[in-house]
Amino acid sequence: MTAAAAPRRSPLLPMLAVAVMAVLLYLPLMVWANYGPAARSLASGADLGCPSALACATQLRNPVLPSPGQLAGGFQALSLPPTSPLSAPYNAVVTGGETLLGLALAVVVGLGLAVLLVASRSFERSTLPWLVASQTVPIVAIAPMLAVLLGQYGVQGFLPKAIIAAFIAFFPVAVGMSRGLRSPDALQLDLMHTYSASSGQTFRLLRFPASLPYLFTALKVAATAALVGSIVAEISTISFSGLGKMLAENSRASDTIALWVIMVYGAVLGVALVGLIGLIERVATPWKART
Amino acid sequence: MTLLSASQPPSTAEPLAPPIVSVQNLQMVFQVPGGQTVALQDANLNIQKGEFISLIGPSGCGKTTLLRLLADLVQPTGGQILIAGQSPSAARKGRQYGYVFQAPALMEWRSVLANVMLPLQVMNVPGDRQARAREMLRLVGLDKFERNYPWQLSGGMQQRVSIARALAFDPPLLFMDEPFGALDEITREHLNLELLRLWRETGKTVIFVTHSIPEAVFLSTRVVVMTARPGKIEGIVDVDLPQPRSDDTRESPRFFEIATEIRELLKKGHA
Amino acid sequence: MTVTARLSAPRRLSPLGPLALAASLAGLLALCLLLARSAAPVSGLPWLLGVLALLLVGAYGVRWVAGGEGRAAHVLPAAFTLLLGVLAAEALLRAYAVPPGLIPTPGLVLQSLWAARTVLLQDTLYTFGLEGLLGFLLGTVAGLLLALVVVRNRFLELGLLPYAALFSSIPIVALAPVIVKAVGLEWPSKTLVVAVTVLFPVVIGAVRGLQSAQPMHLDLMHTYAATPAQTFREVRIPTALPFVFNALKVGSTLALISAIVAEFFGTDGHGLGFRIQIEVGRFNLSVVWAAIVLSSIVGIAFFGLINLLERRFVVTGRAP
Questions:
Q1: Contact C225 B123 (CB under 8 A)
Q2: Which of A72, A158, B259, C203 is deepest in the core (most CB within 10 A)?
Q3: What is the DSSP string of B42-87?
C-alpha cells in the first residue's frame, strides 16, 4: 500500500492519556524513593507528625521526589502574591527580561557582524571559523567569570546578566544571519543587477528580508541557551532577583519542593520565550509558509 | 490497420495464447473532500505477451492510475485484473513485474551497483547477485559506473540505472510510468532507441505510460488512447510500423499518419 | 554561487602582503617581550596606539592571505587572526597593568594550564568522560529506542512528542538542581542530567527522520513484496540517518554544557564545572581560563568526532 497521509487526529486525548500514565507511574516511584529517608528519620527519633515511614513518604520536608500534594502546596506558596519580589512569577519575569534584552543586543551586534562577514571575504575567512567553532564550545562556562569581572568593573544588577545572555546568543545569531544574508540565489542577485541596484539597495530590498527567517531560527535556538546563561550569571554573583537567585537560595537550603517549582517556572519561561520569538516571527515574516 | 474497438487484439490468423494482462470493467473511484473523482471508468484491455503497449492521454485520464492498479499499488473499486492469470497482489508477490517510476528513485546511500542489486537482495534471489547486477548495467551501457553514486550521474543515466534495476530479477513484465518525462528531447529520443533494443533483446512485455504522442508511436506495437473526466479508454491504435525501428522511422509518412490518428482521438475525447 | 561585494579588491601583485603579516607578528611579539622585561608602564596609551597600528598592518597581511583560492587561503587567515589576537591581548593587558587575578594574560593562562595539568585533566576526564560521554550515549540509546516505539504507534506519537518538544525547552539549569538533589552529589546525577538533555533532540530528530522516507522508495519496496522489516532496514533507516546525526551534533554540544552546569549545583569535588566555580570564587581566574580552554578543545573535538562519523555513515545526495 502506498503511504497515504494519516488523518489529522487531535493530540489532546493521547497527551492526556500519557500524562495520566506518567502520574500513575510516578506515585509508586515517589513513595519508594522517599521511603528510605523517611525510615531513617523516624529511626533517629525525629518527630515527623506521622505514624510510619510509609505514611511519612509524602510528608517529608525535603523529599527526594515530592508528592503531587506537596507540589501543589509549593506552587501556591511561591506563586502568591505574584507581584511580590519573593514570588517565582516575579523573578521569572526578571530573568526573562534580562534574557530578552540580551537577545536584542545579540541581534544588533550579530547583524553588524553578519554584514561585515558578507561584505569582506578576508574578514569572513579569518573570523567565521572561530564563530562556528564557538558554537560547539560550552560558552556557559564563561558566565560565572564574566559575571564576576563585570561586577569588579562596576557593572552590576540587571545589565551583566543581559550582557552574558547577549554573549551566548551572539554567535548563533551572527552565523545564522550571515548565512541568511547570503541565501538569495544567483538569479535574484542577477535581477537586481539588471536594475542597476546599488549594493545598499540590494541589501535593503533583497538580502535583509531573505535573512529574516534565518534570524528567527537562530534566535529560537539561542533563546534557551541565553536563558541558561542569564540564570547561571545570577547564581554566580550576588543577585537580588531572578530565578537564578531563587535557585541558589533554595539549593543551599535544600528545599527540594521549591526547586521543583522553580524548575517548572523555568520551563514555562523557556517555552514562553520561544513562543514570543515565534509570535514576533509571524509578524515580521508574514510571507513565510507555515507548516 | 487501425482499430477503434477497445478490447480486440490484432486480428491475424494465429492461435492466441491467453493474454498476459487482462483488464475487465475496471473502475477506480477516489473519495475526495467534497465528493468523488472517477479516475477510471469501465476500462477493458487485453495485452499479449511480448507486446509494447503505450498508455497515452492528458493529465487526469487515468493512465498512471491504471498502471498503479496493475502493479497492486492501489486497489480498484470495481472490475477485475488478471496478470499472468493471477490477481495483481499475487503477481506482485510472485515478482512478475518490474516498475520504473517517473523519477529514478535511486537510493542515494547506495552505489550504482548496489542500487541494481537491491531487488535481488530483498527477494533473496539465489546465485551471484553482483554478476547479475553487472550484466544488467552492461545491458544499459553503464557498466563503467558501477562504483559511482547517484548524485554523480546525470538524470538520463540515473533513469537507465532505474531500468537496469527493474530488469535485474528478470520479470516477464515491465511497467514504466513516464520514465523519460523529466529529460530533454535529445536524451529522450536516444533512450527510446535504447529501450527498444532492450525490449528486443529480452522479449519482455512492456506497458509504458507517456504524454508524448511521438514517443508512444515510436515505441509501441499498440497505443491505448485515454481521455479524462471521467478517465476512460477512448480507443486503441495499432502501430504497424516495421521493426526494428530507427530514427528514420520518425520521419516516415506512416508515422505521421498514426500520430495524427492518435491526436484526433485525443481531441475527440477532449471536446 | 552568490556574488559577495568586497570592500576593495585584494592586491595580489603586491609582495607587501606576507611582509606586512611577518612585520606585524614580529612587532607584537617584540612589544610583549619588552613589556615582560620592564615594570608596568606609566601610561598605556602609546602602547595601545602601537598595538592598534601593528594590528592594522597585520589585517592588511591577513587580507592578502585570504585573497587566494587554494587550501592555504581558506585555513591560514583564521590561524593568523588567532595568533595576532592572542599577541595583541597579551601586549595590551600588560600595558594597562590589568591585575592578573582579574584578566590573566594568555601567557599566564598557558602557564596555569601546564601547572595544573594533572588536576585539570582529571577534571576533564570526569566531566567529559564519565558525565558527558556516558550521558550522551545513554541519552542517545534511550532516544533511539523511544523513537522506534513512537513511530510504530500513532497514539504514542500524538501523546508523547509534544511533551518531548516541551521538555526540550526546559533550561538545563532548572533541571539540574532537581536531579542532583534527587540522585546525589556524585557523577551519576550529572550523567542523568546529560542523558535527559540529550534524549529529547534525539527522539525528535529520529522520529522526523524515520517518517521522512520518500513515497517512491516505499512504493518500490512494495513492488518487491518486501517485508516491513526489509523496508525498515533498506529505506527508513538510511533516510533517517542524516536527521539522527544532526540531532547528535546538537546533543554533543548540549552534553558538555549540561555536565558543566549540573556541576554548579553540587559535586563531590571533581569536574570542570566544579573547578570553574571554585576558582572564580578564589579569584584564580587564570585557572578558570585554563579550564575554559580545555572545555573548548574537548567541545570542538567531540563535535568533530560526530562529524567524522557522519561522513562515514551518511551518503548524501550532494557533492561532499
A1: yes
A2: C203
A3: EEEEEE-TT-EEEEE-STTSSHHHHHHHHTTSS--SEEEEEETTB-
- Using CB atoms within 10 A of its CB, is residue C123 exposed (0-12), middle (13-18) or buried (19+)? buried
pLDDT score, position C317: 59
Please state the pTM of the whole predicted model: 0.81
Whether residue A131 is found in the same domain as residue A238: yes
Counting the structural domains of chain A, the total is 2
Question: Which of B105, B119, B149 is closest, CB to CB, to C315?
Answer: B149
Q: Does A103 reside within a domain?
A: yes
- DSSP strand pairing (B21-32 vs B35-47): antiparallel
Residue of C nearest to B102 (CA): C216
Share of chain C above pLDDT 70, in %: 94
**Nearest-angstrom CA–CA distance, A217 and A173:** 9
- ipTM of predicted assembly, 2 dp: 0.80
Interface check for B199 against chain C (CB to CB < 8 A): the answer is no
Do both A206 and A252 map to the same domain?
yes
What phi, psi does A187 have (nearest 5°)? -65, -40
Architecture of domain C114-313: Orthogonal Bundle (1.10)
CA–CA distance, B187 with B55 (Å, rounded to integer):
21
Domain boundaries, chain B: 21-96+173-270, 103-170
Q: Hey, how many other C-beta atoms are within 10 angstroms of the C-beta on A2? A: 11
Place of cell 503511504: A3
Q: Are C266 and C258 in contact (CB under 8 A)?
A: no
- Choose the closest CB to B122 out of C234, C241, C317: C234
pLDDT tens string C172-229: 888 888 888 888 888 899 999 999 999 998 999 999 999 989 999 999 999 999 999 9
Q: Please tell me the predicted confidence (pLDDT) of residue C5.
A: 46
Which structural domain range is residue A22 located in? 13-64
CATH code (residue A277): 1.10.3720.10
- The type of residue at A290 is R
User: Quick check: A51 pLDDT over 80?
Assistant: no
Same domain, A121 and A252: yes
Does the distance separating the beta carbons of A133 and C300 come in below 8 Å?
Answer: yes
Q: Is C217 on the interface with B (CB under 8 A)?
A: yes
Is C10 in contact with A122 (Cβ distance < 8 A)? yes
| Beta carbons within 8 Å of A76's beta carbon, 6+ residues apart | none
* pLDDT tens digits along B124-171: 899 999 999 999 999 999 999 999 999 999 999 999 999 999 999 999
The side-by-side arrangement of strands in the sheet containing B173-177 is B97-100, B173-177, B205-210, B52-56, B222-227, B232-238
Domain regions of chain C by residue span: 16-98, 114-313
CA A242, CA A265: separation in Å to the nearest integer? 11
DSSP 8-state symbol, C311: H
> Do A169 and A34 share a structural domain?
no
pLDDT value, residue B16: 66
Q: Is residue A291 one of the residues assigned to a domain?
A: no
Q: Which among B107, B123, B151 is the nearest to C224, CB-wise? A: B123
The predicted model gives C25-46 an average pLDDT of 80
Nearest Cβ partner for A135 among C73, C253, C288: C253
Residues A120 and A214 in one domain: yes
Please say whether the beta carbons of B201 and B139 come within 8 A: yes
A96 with A139, same domain? Answer: yes
Judge contact between B133 and B168, C-beta under 8 A. Answer: yes
Q: Is residue A79 part of a domain?
A: no
| CB contact residues (below 8 A), chain C span 114-173, against chain A | 154-163, 166-167, 169-173
- In whole angstroms, give the CA distance from residue A189 to residue A187: 5
A8 CB within 8 Å of a chain B CB? no
Partner-chain contact C216 B101, CB within 8 Å: yes
CATH of domain B21-96+173-270: 3.40.50.300
A264 and A143 within one domain: yes
